[in-house]
Amino acid sequence: MKHYDAIIIGAGQAGVPLAKKMAEAGKKTAIIEKRLVGGTCINDGCTPTKAMIASAKAAYQARKASELGIIISDVNVDLKKVKKRADSIVKMFKGSAEDGIEETKGLKLYMGEASFASEKEIVVKGKDGTTETLTADLIFINIGAKTIIPEIDGIEEIDYLTSTSILDLEEIPEHLVIVGGNYIGLEFGQMFSRFGSQVTILEQSPVILSKEDDDISKAVTEFLAAEKIDINTDVKINHIGWKGDRIETTITSGKKDKKITATHLLIAVGRAPQTQHLHLENCGVETDEHGHILVNDKLETNVKGIYALGDVKGGPAFTHIAYNDYTIVYRNLIENTNLSTADRPVPYCMFTDPQLARIGLSEREAKAQKLDYQVAVLPMKNVARGIETNETSGLMKAIVDAKTDKILGATILASEGGEIMSVLQMAMQGGITSEQIRYGIFAHPTYTESLNNLFMKIHQ
């Protein structure tokens, strides 16, 4: 049995920097990883998908270049080369994370699956079957989430894809069916459509992106449909099975029954915490009905000295939130600050083209809270920079407090929407009013400059 001052379970985007910082602060530290250092984000999440999305966008822009007077006679996609480029970026980022662990004095990496034997005692089972027992005063859980596989008749009989396994494809699917019309499914759907696949999306809700405002969902539906992506909503999947060497999906959409035959099927209905193998019953850490670890606003569980960070604790499942979790925990424990997760901003971005970026309240949420608010909307077809660059899909939308003129939230559906949203996030954090932005000076011609015109809707 080996004793450490701190043990981190999971080498993801919170786990690695936390482990390094704890060791650098003089604490004997161990980090345990069962699969790949870097976690989902680096290995089969943000890094490879955004690299591949860039390739898909290049193909799309080449095909529509004639609109800008550039004639490209033929556009071909070499998925093996696309994958090779993405894999090389993953290897670089993963190698950097591994080197950082190896070069940190006082930090030991264990490769294996961790489970609790008692409150502060962890057993690590290696891939070769050997086990080691570790103890620590401080334990941090950063094990992330995995793809939810819904209970659909016949699904276990077919070779379905997940957001992880689809990245291994080296040939473009002829026809890809995607179960799930939210952020992951839509990114993959547009990407493979631009690579050359026929894409069909199946969503059980009445609309895709059901958590967004109706006008945002409608705008996303329109630009995806314009790229000939077949979007089916209000869908019940009755059966999935083989029809020869193809996958046949039998659905009811609204009141209509139909069968869809495709070469590939991707499951993208959501993700669940990977807590089932931790044996949390042995340490007394409480979870909710979905398996998420319950924490307070300092990210500590009901057991003193045991913390949970990132997707495993529920709430916003974003890499940047996991990283912020690390900064809160580290600074509180080592620098004696009093930080919490209460009222922190939660920005996010879906990397379709155009991007969908959100910060703060949506109009639906403001209405539900019965706030006194104003709405500013600016279609991208009225944005000078968008017109000049031939990027006119989408819109900008902001929710403003009618009394204080402070920005309550914004949704930006635009080329580089994430960057534009970040400007408004900083305005919100700094208490800058919409009137100040309306009359602010921004470089011309930029997308940010169009915020003048967005808030002109409120301040004539």
UniProtKB/TrEMBL annotation:
SUPFAM superfamilies: FAD/NAD(P)-binding domain, FAD/NAD-linked reductases, dimerisation (C-terminal) domain. Residues 346-453 form the Pyridine nucleotide-disulphide oxidoreductase dimerisation domain. Keywords: FAD, Flavoprotein, NAD, Nucleotide-binding, Oxidoreductase, Pyruvate. NAD(+) binds at residues 180-187, 203, 270. The active site is at 444 (proton acceptor). It comes from the Bacteria. Disulfide bonds join 41-46. InterPro entries: FAD/NAD-bd_sf (IPR036188), FAD/NAD-binding_dom (IPR023753), FAD/NAD-linked_Rdtase_dimer_sf (IPR016156), Pyr_nuc-diS_OxRdtase (IPR001100), Pyr_nucl-diS_OxRdtase_dimer (IPR004099). FAD binds at residues 50, 311. Gene3D superfamilies: 3.30.390.30, FAD/NAD(P)-binding domain (3.50.50.60). Residues 4-324 form the FAD/NAD(P)-binding domain. One of its GO terms (molecular function) is NAD(P)H dehydrogenase (quinone) activity. This is Pyruvate/2-oxoglutarate dehydrogenase complex dihydrolipoamide dehydrogenase (E3) component. It comes from Pedobacter psychrotolerans.
